[in-house]
Amino acid sequence: MNFSPPARAESSPATPPDNDELAYWLALLRAPRVGSVTFARLLEDFNSPRQLFNASAAQWQAQGLNAKLQAYLRTPDWVEVEQDLAWSAQAGHQILTWNQAAYPARLKEIHDPPPLLFVQGKIELLSMPQIAIVGSRNPSQNGEETAQEFAHYLAAAGWVITSGMALGIDAASHRGALASTGYTIAVAGTGLNNVYPSKHQALAEQIRTQGALVSEFPPDTPVRHVHFPRRNRIISGMSLGTLVVEATLRSGSLITARQATEQGREVFAIPGSIHNPLAKGCHALIKEGAKLVESAQDILEELHTFSPGIVPPQIGNNLSPTQHAAQKDRLDEDYSHLCKHMSIGEPISIDSLVERCGLTAEAVSSMLLILELRGLVNSLPGGNYARVGN
User: Fold this and answer.
1) Which of 258, 278, 306 is the last residue of a domain?
2) Furthest-apart CA pair in the chain: how many Å?
């Protein structure tokens, strides 16, 4: 794609052709010191990025634009814009501007929504009901399992699980959703050509295939730690509620939770031992008004009260009746097999159930969570479980 220079009264480099409106958005995105709020103000003053770039110096000065921004508007880097447009032309890649119908409506409601979103994967997920799950990058094993179990259950109930693909709780949440054949969205703090952390290459590919990767940054944007707190507002902004599983008092997850509160969204926190540093952040949130949750059902009940009109689609509705019946029979068989190895009122550990059933610990943990939520088993002290009598 070649941009040829038009005839203009003022000297300027090449500009995009008249039909490339997106190019002007991308050019303005790269303007110096133009964040989301300033971007919105400029759109209000000039109606569109195209009109801003085509305005006269007198118009720029009348709106108080500083000299550095005016210099950029005269000579934007259209080469980088071409690279962004080439990226969006690839299969499964899309760039959304906030004036498009596919841009997530809930995200538009926040104070500083990103003007553009770069997306890989299933773009329709951005407008589906979402629950964010965040937490420590260095969680306990129990915290990681809890995040995975909650995500598994909520995704199976039709909710999209949104997180930041960081180490620890974020990754466990994505994996829990994917394991349930549900959907998940990862909001990146880098451009989507750069997976961070690099060890999550395989996870990113799975999310790209079964969910969506999202970033407000151009594709080649490298790792910059200042970007990660910024991306948190997108995680909470697209979601109806944010669940914090484990967090210290200085955890970045608390930023996400507080942004959720500022955005008028629900915040949930899982309590822990008063001696556990990873529980202190959750306890602080609960003191500030977050809802204490002990099960995924607590979240669903609260969200139903908070947004009674929101009913997430059930995962698997796109299956044929024969496929749906086969899937249900398989699940019923596995749950029945697990229950046969549990006695009414008698405690048994997950490790013992794994040995008896021949299932993985991950599968047994997820199934026990769902059975508990259905009132068929009780969790007991020491990480044990027991069947509930009729």
Assistant:
1) 306
2) 86
Residue type, 293: V
Q: What pLDDT is recorded for position 10?
A: 42
pLDDT of 349 strictly over 90 = no
The total number of structural domains that make up the chain: 3
Domain residues for 133? 105-306
C-alpha span between 390 and 141 (Å, rounded): 33
User: What would the pLDDT profile of 264-312 be if each residue is shown by its tens digit?
Assistant: 999 999 999 999 999 999 999 999 999 999 999 999 999 988 777 777 7
187 in Cβ contact with 160 (< 8 Å): no
Q: Is the peptide bond before 308 cis (omega within 30 degrees of 0)?
A: no
Answer yes or no: are the C-beta atoms of 280 and 249 closer than 8 Å: yes
Are 113 and 104 spatial neighbours (Cβ–Cβ below 8 Å)? no
Contact (Cβ atoms closer than 8 angstroms) between residue 343 and residue 386 = yes
Give the type of residue at 367: M
368: domain CATH number is: 1.10.10.10
Residue range 233-261: average pLDDT? 96
Reported as a single tens digit per residue, the pLDDT across 71-119 is 999 999 899 999 999 999 999 999 999 999 899 999 999 999 999 999 9
Of 14, 13, 12, give the one whose Cα is nearest residue 3: 14
Tell me what the mean pLDDT of segment 146-160 comes to: 94
Against a cut of 0.85, is the pTM above it?
Answer: no
What is the rounded distance in angstroms from the CA atom of residue 182 to the CA atom of residue 210?
A: 8
3-state class percentages of the chain: helix first, strand second, coil last, to nearest 5: 50, 15, 40
Domain boundary among 65, 89, 113: 89
Question: Quick one: tokens of 333?
Answer: 């068989």
Q: Which among 180, 184, 134, 188 is positioned nearest to 157, based on CA atoms?
A: 180
Q: Kindly state the helix (H) or strand (E) to which residue 154 belongs, with its residue range.
A: helix 141-156
Q: CB neighbours (10 Å) of residue 10?
A: 7
Does residue 236 sit in the same domain as residue 295?
A: yes
Residue 7 lies in a domain: no
Contact 140, 169 (CB under 8 A): no
Residues 6+ apart with CB under 8 A from 148: 172, 173, 175, 176, 179, 362, 365, 366
* Judgement on whether residues 133 and 198 belong to the same structural domain of the protein: yes
Tokens of 224: 């910059």
